[in-house]
Amino acid sequence: KQWYQRRVAITAGAGGHLEYLINNAGIVFGKLFSETPIERYTKVMNVNGLGPMHLTKVFYPDMLEKGGHITNVASIAGLGPCPRMVDYGASKHAVVGFSRGLQYEHDCCGITNVKVTTIFPHLMNTGMFNNCTVKLNRMFPAIEPDHAASKIILAIEEEREEMMIPQNVEKYFIIQYIYGSKMFRRLAKIFGNFEYMKSFQNIREH
After folding, report:
1. Is 104 part of the annotated catalytic residue set?
2. What is the pLDDT of residues 160-204, one digit of tens each?
3. Residue 93 is inside which H or E element, if any?
4. 49-103, pLDDT tens digit by residue?
5. Hey, is 23 helix, strand or coil?
């Protein structure tokens, strides 16, 4: 009920129709799965995974009628997580599944007036992953928020279904699709992904 009450307030401020919805929810705790209490990874799943679904559900009926564009900010962790990010990776994987599932439904039902875009950012320089170690920093540097925002706008304008930021990350994940997860994990270890979250310092209260 509260979600739908908020929809009334938001759509009223948007002239009666919200055309663009950007779901950018994300929290992280950075612990091994064995060290993470149930209530914590449940919260991660609720915020990161269910949050975009709930918000979309609120505005979706209006978008089906009048058109719109849904953008879900996932993460490359949703395609290839690393240690100490099991819950985070699972939650972002849920976002990917949600986006792709909607696209399948749209194709099946002939829905052409609602677009869906999924964004896969690498490490963002926002403090969320404070003090994390990126071994190949030149190849995969931390992304500045302004740069990410401009790329997201571009993806929306061009109605892209998916975009990775930076784009060269795509080549990295092709290996997973061709050679499988086991080979991908070996490569991830060489690239330093296993050490990525060891130095993580959580500076945010969730």
Report:
1. no
2. 999 999 888 888 788 888 988 888 888 888 877 777 787 787 766
3. helix 86-109
4. 999 999 999 889 989 999 999 999 999 999 987 889 999 999 999 999 999 999 9
5. strand
Distance CA 118, CA 156 (A): 10
The catalytic position among 4, 41, 60, 88 is 88
Quote the pLDDT of residue 136.
61
- On whether the CB atoms of residues 134 and 195 are closer than 8 A, the answer is no
Contacts of 124 (CB under 8 A, 6+ apart): 142, 143, 145, 148
Choose among 61, 201, 198: nearest CA to 134. 198
C-beta separation of 163 from 155 below 8 A: yes
Task: Count the alpha carbons within 13 Å of 62 in the hemisphere toward its beta carbon.
Answer: 21
135 pLDDT higher than 70? no
pTM: 0.87
What Rg, from alpha-carbon coordinates, does the chain have?
A: 18
The candidate with the shortest Cα–Cα distance to 75, out of 121, 127, 142, is 121
Quickly count: other Cβ atoms within 10 Å of residue 121's Cβ: 24
Measured at the alpha carbon of residue 15, what is the angle toward residues 10 and 18, in degrees to the nearest 5?
55
